[in-house]
Amino acid sequence: MNEPTRLPDLSTDKDFDGEVFAPIYTTTVTVNGGTASHGRASGRARSGDGVLDLDLRMPVELGGDGQGTNPEQLFAAGIAACFHGALSLVARQAALDPVAISVEATVAFGRDPEDGGYLLHVDLEVKWPAIDLAVAAPLVEKADSLCPYTKMALRGTPTSITLSS
Fold first, then answer.
1. What pTM was computed for the model?
2. pLDDT tens-digit profile of 51-61?
3. Structural domains in the chain?
4. Which of 39, 48, 85, 158 could form a disulfide with 43 if both were Cys (CB 3.0 to 4.6 A apart)?
């Protein structure tokens, strides 16, 4: 028999007052290989537990064959999923059914006018049929304050880069 999955007791309160980052979950994905000898153009991305294991390819728009996913699609999936999760949580806390909620993330890869390098631009569209926008708007705002992906997109995220052999 299938029993319903118990949802975790997640807090939306700002109830952590530690002085350092406190990880709750950590994952590692390794990208390597490929005909162009770097994962951006081609290669394989694999998570440490093997659940994620997929081919990476340049999109057709950037001269690739488009026969695999690319970093922008992966980021769009991640930010959409994370925001959807945060909004579903606050909807449940407001005694609203989150089943109809969908989040569409559009990620654009382009040139950065400040330094000539590259930059991502993210647009999120929340679709929540049959809800009063006045009811949904504060919940979307609360979800935005909870979602670590939108926080990262807005204010950056601590990053370390280590070179090893």
1. 0.84
2. 999 999 888 88
3. 27-69 (2.20.25), 70-155 (3.30.300.20)
4. 39
